[in-house]
Specification:
The protein is α/β, with parallel strands linked by helices. Helices cover 35% and strands 20% of the residues. The protein is built from 10 helices and 9 strands. The strands form 2 sheets. Strands 4-3-2-5-6-9-7 form a 7-stranded mixed beta sheet, sandwiched between helices. A two-stranded antiparallel ribbon has the order 1-8. The longest helix has 14 residues, at 243-256.
């Protein structure tokens, strides 16, 4: 298919056969897997996945590509869902669901949070993302990359960076390097929060001005006595706390009500 990549959809099409083969090997699709691909584009991953699966679901927003997909792949093997992945109800496909995608860089973070909300029905996610985003996802506390994205995804998923992908592997070549990451939802959360909305609120507040100490960043929630009672050093910055520390802070907010 001849197709002019559309910037508004963040289209960069994977073309490197060795990278494609490595991604498929990492996914290791089995015939009966329930799998959905986000942003199939021109079928770089769709084609080898469809050969191995009894049925593949794909989500695409570009109408020209949708029309091509529906003529290129038999409907009995590849089901094309037209629309925005940010609004897609992944639970509608059943469980356990495997998610694959070369995620558009311009919506990667909100899309990851959207998928996290469906983690209970997901078996695993293999996502191609901007390398910087992957580094933030898997970052350890007390590093410059560690932030809100790290905490909120590490709360829900075990993550592994499995492949770096050069810009030359795409057409058109993006201005950034990419990486593939595997996210596997915890079968049992290591540090379950009483209220995940409260957790998100505290994490967002703590990182909103990441150079500030917790004493200042969370002044509206805790005083010096609260930090001491919770065993959290108020002189630290948000990047110095682990997931369990944020959960402890979030749970305490609920106790104060």
């Amino acid at each position: 298919m001849r197709h002019v990549p559309r910037k508004r959809f963040g289209q960069n099409f994977l073309t490197d056969e060795s990278v494609i083969a490595a991604i498929i090997a990492a996914i290791a699709p089995q015939p009966h897997d329930r799998m959905v691909e986000i942003g199939p584009g021109l079928g770089a991953l769709t084609r080898p996945l469809a050969r191995k699966l009894d049925r593949l679901h794909v989500i695409e927003i570009d109408r020209d590509i949708i029309a091509w997909l529906r003529t290129e792949f038999p409907a009995a093997r590849v089901t094309v869902h037209e629309g925005d992945a940010l609004e897609f109800d992944f639970m509608s496909l059943g469980a356990p669901l495997r998610v694959v995608g070369n995620l558009p860089y311009n919506i990667s973070t909100p899309l990851l949070f959207h998928l996290a909300r469906h983690a209970g029905t997901i078996r695993d996610i293999h996502a191609m993302l901007q390398k910087e985003v992957v580094e933030r996802m898997v970052a350890a506390p007390s590093t410059s990359e560690y932030g809100r994205l790290s905490v909120m995804l590490q709360y829900r998923f075990e993550m592994e960076r499995i492949l770096d992908v050069p810009a030359a592997a795409f057409n058109p070549a993006p201005k950034v390097e990419s990486a593939v990451v595997r996210l596997t939802p915890f079968s049992r959360l290591p540090h379950p929060a009483r209220d995940e909305a409260a957790l998100g609120k505290i994490v967002t507040a703590a990182f909103s001005q990441r150079r500030k100490t917790l004493r200042n960043a969370l002044r509206g929630y805790f005083d010096a006595a609260d930090f001491e009672r919770l065993g959290v050093d108020a002189g630290l910055r948000a990047q110095d706390l682990g997931v369990e520390d944020f959960v402890r802070l979030a749970d305490d907010i609920l106790k104060q009500k």
